[in-house]
Design a protein that fits this description.
Elements (H helix, E strand, L loop, with lengths): L1 H12 L35 E5 L2 H4 L12 H8 L16 H15 L3 E5 L2 H4 L9 H16 L3 E7 L5 H7 L6 H17 L5 E6 L1 H9 L24 H28 L2 E7 L2 E4 L4 H24 L4 H7 L8 H8 L4 E5 L3 E6 L9 H5 L1 E4 L1 E2 L2 E2 L2 E2 L6 E2 L2 H13 L5 E5 L4 E2 L6 H4 L3 H19 L4 E6 L14 E2 L3 E4 L5 E4 L1 H9 L11
Parallel strand pairs: 1-2, 1-16, 2-3, 3-4, 4-5, 5-7, 6-8, 7-14, 14-16
Antiparallel strand pairs: 8-9, 10-11, 12-13, 15-17, 18-19
Helix pairs in contact: 4-6, 8-10, 9-10, 11-13, 15-17, 17-18
Length: about 525
């Protein structure tokens, strides 16, 4: 998660303890309070879902096992190791593929309601279409059943960036309209096979991140960009991000419309799309900077939010990007407007926005936005700094964002699908010490308090998913940072340990202040 946002920032300003298998975990010198806090889940609506998230390529591992086909991330990490901070791959990840039963037990032990995960397209269709991999289907059937048997609700994403390499080679992936029908068929199979048990579907996770990092800056697979942006072998940063973003939306619409017409009445589930964004504050009180902050929200969030709510792109994007921004047909527009039952929103931090002058040559997503982003004003940081120089703790941002969506986007049902913080990996300190992630607890508590305030003000927030369940492969940062509430010991057989934040979550999730915690 971390690299996605640091990549965006670089572009836009220049984004019971269980161990592996059946092995017992070592004792942890951690002494959480035994009384539940007065700030706990009972303050939220009774139907509110508290969950935690993961994604297939980041955690599953087993990249070459049981018939899984290669994704663009498999190829990218091997062909461009220099673009991964520690030259690592997701071949092993957190080995969730082999340890899912004990990992799901940990989710249950924390006291959560739901587990968010994604399906690896190439574990189901190794070549993206055609022959089905029965062992892949068996794995996800078993995973879903395990989630349900632990009284957890599965919250399932169809596409979290691990696009089939075979389709990338065949027609250029999301640069081609061919992808819409292939994605629809993949989604159809998943609904038919898993939809009797899955009641929350997400079609696409973070189309912005996929489009910008993959096709504007080249920092993510498939690593396409213009030569004037970075060292990519091919690409056009002035137009490809918008083409890819367009077909991501059309693929979403095709898959969502299919679900609503063919499966929803019988399976009684819901479907949506998950969008990331920062919040943006004007750097000064000038009209130009206030407009810049609104424009940044349009480019980050409105690019994909306005089509699924209103059927078209933001006017600021149409004005700035011009003919490079694709157009929707009337039928596509109407389909998009009725395509979601909920909106997934991923929020991490907030930036200052300052008006920037137009650039006539070497156009990119960031120059089109006409905004300069920064994290300080008059020498003062926007929020509490963290180990990561792009992420400052600014809890007010989640409240401001929720209210913005309520006021500007017809107050849709919202699931906060990602919210969290990373710490730099430091293998030189003892595991016991590494588990004491007090900064993550402060981050969670402060954001949940402001989210509750938004709910009290009428925002239709239906659930909150902390990011992430365990430490894992963090895209271009590899294994150099840790977002997890569960510590993965990379030097000792990937053993799992609950961090302090997991204990805090367990305490928070207790409704009765007289209950005590048992571990």
């Amino acid at each position: 998660m971390r690299t996605k946002i640091v990549s965006l920032l670089c572009l836009l300003s220049l984004a019971t303890l269980l161990a592996s298998g059946t092995e017992s975990a070592s004792p942890i010198s951690l002494k959480p309070s035994h009384k539940a806090s007065s700030f706990n889940r009972s303050l939220f609506p009774s139907t509110f879902l508290f969950g935690i998230g993961s994604s297939a390529y980041q955690v599953e591992g087993a990249a070459n096992e049981d018939g899984r086909g290669p994704s663009i991330w498999d190829n990218f990490t091997k062909e461009h190791p220099e673009k991964i901070w520690d030259q690592s791959t997701g071949d092993v990840g957190a080995d969730f593929y082999h340890r899912y039963k004990s990992d799901i037990k940990l989710v249950k032990d924390i006291g959560l309601d739901s587990f968010r995960f994604s399906i690896s397209w190439t574990r189901i269709f190794p070549k993206g279409k055609g022959a089905v991999n029965g062992l892949g289907v068996e794995f996800y059937n078993n995973l879903i059943d395990e989630v349900l048997s632990n009284d957890l609700k599965p919250f399932v994403t169809l596409f979290h960036w691990d696009f089939p390499q075979a389709l990338e080679d065949e027609y250029g992936g999301f640069r081609s309209s061919n992808v819409v029908e292939d994605f629809r068929k993949y989604a159809d199979f998943c609904y038919k096979t898993f939809g009797d048990r899955v009641k929350h579907w997400v079609t696409i996770n973070e189309p912005l991140s996929y489009s910008i990092n993959g096709y504007n800056g080249g920092t993510f697979a498939p690593s396409r960009c213009s030569k004037y942006v970075a060292n990519c072998s091919a690409g056009d940063s002035s137009i490809e991000p918008y083409i890819v973003g367009h077909y991501l939306l059309l693929a979403h619409e095709a898959a969502a419309t299919l679900y609503k017409k063919k499966y929803q009445a019988r399976q009684k589930g819901q479907i949506g799309i998950t969008l990331p964004t920062h919040f943006f504050l004007p750097k000064s009180n000038s009209v130009a900077d206030k407009q810049a902050a609104n424009r940044a929200l349009d480019f980050f969030f409105g690019w994909h939010a306005r089509p699924v709510i209103f059927g078209d792109y933001p006017e600021s994007m149409k004005s700035s990007v011009g003919s490079r921004l694709p157009k929707f047909t009337k039928a596509q527009s109407e389909g998009l407007k009725s395509s979601i039952d909920f909106l997934g929103v991923n929020y991490y931090t907030t930036y200052y926005a300052e008006n920037a002058a137009p650039v006539r040559a070497n156009r990119t997503f960031n120059t089109d936005m006409l905004v300069t982003l920064s994290t300080e004003k008059n020498g003062v940081a926007i929020g509490t700094p963290t180990d990561l120089d792009w992420l400052y703790i600014y809890p007010k941002g989640i409240h401001l964002l929720m209210v913005h969506i309520k006021d500007k986007y017809k107050n849709p049902n919202i699931y906060v699908n990602e919210n969290g913080i990373a710490e730099a990996r430091n293998d030189s300190i003892p595991v016991d010490e590494a588990l004491n992630d007090g900064i993550r607890i402060r981050y969670l508590k402060s954001h949940l308090r402001l989210l509750l305030q938004a709910i009290k003000e009428g925002v239709n927030v239906k659930g909150y998913y902390a990011w992430s369940f365990s430490d894992s492969f963090e895209w271009d940062a590899g294994y150099t940072v840790r977002f997890g509430h569960v510590y993965v010991d990379y030097n000792n057989n990937l053993k799992r340990y609950l961090k302090s934040s997991a204990f805090w979550l367990k305490k928070f999730l207790l409704n009765d202040n007289n209950k005590v915690l048992s571990y």
